[in-house]
């Protein structure tokens, strides 16, 4: 992903989430700036070049602390000095690409980058009943979360679930 991709990323975000979970360009740009090697876009097949290409989906991830997921729609100023997990912040696909394997390709590319950083665990907050989707990538719901994590989950909407996996 490149900074110039963000306008199209915001379009995909709006298509995927409607008005329910939209995050600001500043929030997403902060993650890209802090960890460009773990943020990815998928381009529509058959597009000719960067000026004509359409973004089919995106994945924002970054090193973080397992016990402290960042609140939704929060600009990050820095990564932790001692990250202990790969945090999967957001993946969204344009409706036209669902079922085409785009999610798996994005995840595989980012996972390879995360593993090269030496991180041994991953975490995410599953929203909009997406736990089954993330379970296919090896994530499991954390049944007993700390009060700090529970408070952050409340900001992600009803039914948000903290999930983790080993890498």
TrEMBL record:
Coiled coil: none annotated. It comes from the Bacteria. Residues 1-167 form the N-acetyltransferase domain. Gene3D superfamilies: 3.40.630.30. Pfam families: Acetyltransf_1 (PF00583). One of its GO terms (molecular function) is acyltransferase activity, transferring groups other than amino-acyl groups. InterPro entries: Acyl_CoA_acyltransferase, GNAT_dom. This is N-acetyltransferase domain-containing protein. It comes from Pandoraea oxalativorans.
